[in-house]
Specification:
Elements: E1 3-6, E2 14-15, E3 17-20, E4 37-40, E5 44-47, E6 51-54, E7 56-58, E8 63-69, E9 74-80, E10 84-88, E11 106-108, E12 111-113, E13 115-118, E14 137-142, E15 146-147, E16 149-152, E17 157-159, E18 201-205, E19 210-215, E20 220-224, E21 228-232, E22 238-242, E23 248-253, E24 258-262, E25 267-271, E26 277-281, E27 287-292, E28 297-301, E29 306-310, E30 316-320, E31 326-331, E32 336-340, E33 345-349, E34 355-359, E35 365-370, E36 375-379, E37 384-388, E38 394-398, E39 403-408, E40 413-417, E41 422-426, E42 432-436, E43 442-447, E44 451-456, E45 461-466
Parallel strand pairs: 1-14
Antiparallel strand pairs: 2-17, 3-4, 4-8, 5-6, 6-9, 7-8, 8-9, 9-10, 10-13, 11-12, 12-15, 13-14, 16-17, 18-45, 19-20, 20-21, 21-22, 23-24, 24-25, 25-26, 27-28, 28-29, 29-30, 31-32, 32-33, 33-34, 35-36, 36-37, 37-38, 39-40, 40-41, 41-42, 43-44, 44-45
């Protein structure tokens, strides 16, 4: 069944300029020029599901916008940091299931009616083809008939305030060209206090095929398949350090330094906060993931069904006998746990290397994380997660979206879903909420105390997702 998104536009700040035949462009799209008079919209709409939606930008990085024809129809492109480009006008084959008028977006009788469409919901991902994706989300956005009240008729400013009254004198909605945010708890409109919705996303381009992600207490660090690591500050400043050998697939923090698991050369690399690197060779074959036990690093080695313990000085001990193709590794405070992708099992390893394997996870467990009591695997082929108690009792919760990595936010588990550019929040009872809009092909996920971060392999980027 296709999924539509019901947008409740709590605030639609639109300063409408009377422009004839206006043409807006973005780096990706061009809106159809209107032969009838049109008015350019500016400002932001707010949705509890999506967050801020920008209706115009005349900055140097991207020039885009939405205009209104003299009959009230909207056309052009808006932008959402959560779901990307949103197309207004020129749409057809509207959904008919929820009572929304089957038409293009229009302001009619002081209400916003009809449909818009997120381009990420199309098969092409960019609205060059309007065929729907095949994973159940089609990008259609119901505008819901929300009231639009004219507040300053002389300048065509509009707002759907609740209650439906205009703002006080001197507090009219402003045109804002920068990325809207609520950092510091301040709304970009009227400087009112606000809360960023869970699931709101910001993506930063790294320029490398990002694979693993870890937090050092201040910054996020990314392992890049091409042989480098990238540090990202809380403000989004990016520094890349080259020189990691052998396709680092994962990264972990030891309290001072970062460590990568280098899959193609059977080694690990220690990276100091300043980027100085030391590589230690001799892990088991094909180290896929890496985790810290409070003293030592451990790698899960996919090619020879083993784990390797690495001391701070680089001394290695390899233990064989895990389940088949260990793909994930995590620490429970005492023992290491391995997710074995080829035989749907987990293996518990004591500090001395004694192993106990428990079978029965969902299909193809690809990563594992600890919630303070239980282990959780993310099951790529089974589109599910499995909770494993300390004694090995398992409960599997079905989901979807090809999850490949998992992390804990202090309350809930989160998965990175590679095939549909999204994350899923899973409550302790297994209830799931899906959020779309990460960079392409998220391969790793980690928590920074407030936000989740995904490392996006095909998108060569990282995405910050508000988690709390």
């Amino acid at each position: 069944m296709s999924k539509t998104l019901k947008i409740n536009l709590i605030m639609l700040g639109v300063a409408v300029l009377i422009l004839a035949g206006l043409l807006y462009t973005s780096p990706m799209f061009k809106a159809t020029a209107q032969t009838s008079p049109s008015r350019a919209l500016s400002g932001y709409a707010w949705s509890d599901a999506v967050g801020w939606i920008s209706f115009s930008n005349t900055g140097s990085s991207a020039n885009y916008g939405v205009s209104m024809s003299d009959t009230g129809y909207l056309f052009g492109y808006a932008w959402s940091d959560t779901i990307g480009w949103i197309k207004f006008g020129g749409l057809s084959d509207f959904p008919t299931s929820d009572g929304t008028a089957s038409q293009n977006a229009q302001i009619s009788s002081s209400k916003l009616i009809g449909w818009a469409r997120a381009c990420a919901g199309t098969a092409s991902g960019d609205c060059s083809s309007m065929t729907s994706r095949k994973d159940g989300w089609d990008g259609w956005i119901s505008l819901g008939g929300n009231a639009v009240v004219a507040c300053t008729a002389s300048s065509y400013e509009y707002s759907s305030w609740s209650p439906s009254v205009c703002p006080a004198s001197g507090q009219q909605t402003r045109t804002l060209l920068n990325t809207p945010n609520c950092e510091g708890g301040v709304s970009p409109i009227l400087n009112q206090s606000c809360t960023v919705p869970v699931g709101t996303m910001t993506t930063y381009i790294t320029g490398s095929n990002s694979q693993g992600v870890a937090f050092d207490g201040t910054n996020m660090w990314i392992s890049n398949y091409s042989g480098s690591v990238t540090k990202i500050t809380p403000s989004g400043t990016i520094t890349t350090y080259t020189g990691v050998a052998g396709n680092p697939l994962d990264i972990a923090f030891d309290g001072t330094n970062m460590w990568t698991a280098n899959s193609s050369v059977n080694s690990v690399t220690k990276i100091t906060p300043s980027g100085t690197m030391t590589t230690y060779t001799g892990t088991g074959s094909g180290p896929r993931r890496i985790a810290f036990d409070g003293t030592n690093m451990w790698t899960a080695n996919m090619s020879d069904n083993s784990v390797t313990k690495i001391t701070p000085s680089g001394t290695m001990t390899t233990y064989t006998g895990t389940g088949s193709i260990p793909a994930g590794i995590a620490f429970d405070g005492i023992n290491m746990w391995i997710a074995n992708s080829a035989d749907d099992s987990v293996t518990k390893i004591t500090p001395s290397g004694t192993m106990t394997t428990y079978t029965g996870t969902g299909s193809k467990p690809w990563d594992i994380a600890f919630d303070g009591t239980n282990m959780w695997t993310v099951n790529q082929k089974g589109n599910s997660v499995t909770k494993i108690t300390p004694s090995g009792t398992m409960t599997t919760y079905p989901g979807r979206s090809s999850p490949v990595s998992i992390a804990f936010d202090g309350t809930n588990m989160w998965t990175a879903n590679s095939s549909v550019n999204s994350v899923t929040k899973i409550t302790p009872s297994g209830t799931m909420t899906l959020y779309y809009g990460t960079g392409r092909s998220p391969a790793g996920i980690a928590f920074d105390g407030t936000n989740m971060w995904t490392a996006n392999y095909s998108g060569k980027s990282v995405t910050k997702i508000v988690a709390k």
